[in-house]
Amino acid sequence: MAQYQSFPHAAGDSHTLDKLKALKLPDLEGASFLDVGCNEGFFCGFARFQGAARVVGIDHSAQFIARARKRFPDCEFHCQGWEALPDGEFDVILLASALHYAEDQPALIQTLVNKLSLDGVLVLELGIVSARKPTWERVKRGIDERVFPSMDMLRQVLAGYAWKWMGPSVPQQGDPVARHVVHISRRRPMAYLLMQPPGYGKSSIATALFPPAGVPVVSGDDQVARIGKGDIQVSEQLRKAVAEDYSPFELDRIIRAVFEQGMGPELVDLWLAGAGEGDVAFDVYVPSEHHASVERLLQARGYLPVRLGWDRVGAAPMPDTVLAKCAERFYLSMLQPADGETTGDEERQFDPAGFVDEIYVEAGHLVIRGWAVDKQGALPERMGAKLGRRELQVNAVEKQMRPDVQKHLGLPHALVGYRMSVVAPQVRTASDVGGLQVCVPGGITFTLAGNLDIIFRGAAS
User: Is residue 42 within 8 Å of residue 31, measured between CB atoms?
Assistant: First the structure.
């Protein structure tokens, strides 16, 4: 049988080394490699030389397979055609100068793509006829007559795949059809990621772009809200991370906590549960330091992540805590008398006092509302809470206006109310709140105001 592939001591009809360069193979170290129509195994030998973990070559010629085994004993060779491919998936499959022998060329391409691993690539070297329309053209060669596609026809055949024309291959003497190299992979569904912070217009952009194109949009805000309300079944760890101190106005803080506690994968899977098949857009806030991990998670689940980024238009709102402090300072600044004036409140002293007016339990937290004043008639700077002798962890204290208390006590201003959130996982019934006290410096404590109903807004953890 005539020598086809070229080796240092056996020149053949093919410029095999030049073809190897034209194929633009990916790095094969640690990969699995299959050469369909391997001839004497030149490309299999290269794959093993590069450190491929598994190298398989198939060819219908017993003589070529025998030579291949002798040349490259570390590779696996089988005398068979593409009708029965070897077991397993392959990271790289090569089909060089052979597609035109297939009776159904699109079906063979599909068969080979189906043997690829998730990130695998089919390296296809084929002849492409010069024509201005999508057509299959029968071409007479020196030894036979075969059918070759035009480029427009190839585009139609590969429309369902992710593919790229890599350039021309090496001309073969006597071949009337120019050869080209194409890399083909499975087309992954695209996951369009709009992960900018709140206030960047994610929802407006997503609504304008994707529904008209038939791409569903998954709202991360809606998903988190449903977790917070108990409408979605999730792990106890994720439920607690979202439901504890849940607020629809602090979704960015909640999502950040979810990722920092290592529950990003479960949240991503929850987004995907509402994605359906095909492409999808995610209107979700994700802290920038976790963007790459979200992309990796989506890649591992078979998606091609496409991150959309843009700058915020217009002035950003101040953070809530900053704005609250500025607003309170402005409010209190109006108490300062003009130069030379007095208000009569400068020397006035008040008896420290306070009450708990409202309390509810939600997901292991006590939310306490009331009022308190110190000797200057202001809300004490530091506040705490006790349940019996046990001090509770205070998450936040929000100042509130209480004009009723101002009027009743004759205070200089009404900013003496508070809304305090404290961690109290042991509170499961109303009786567990007995002995609750709000504490301020100086050993002063405030108890419940009269007979106060305890409201349970969600299952305690």
Answer: no
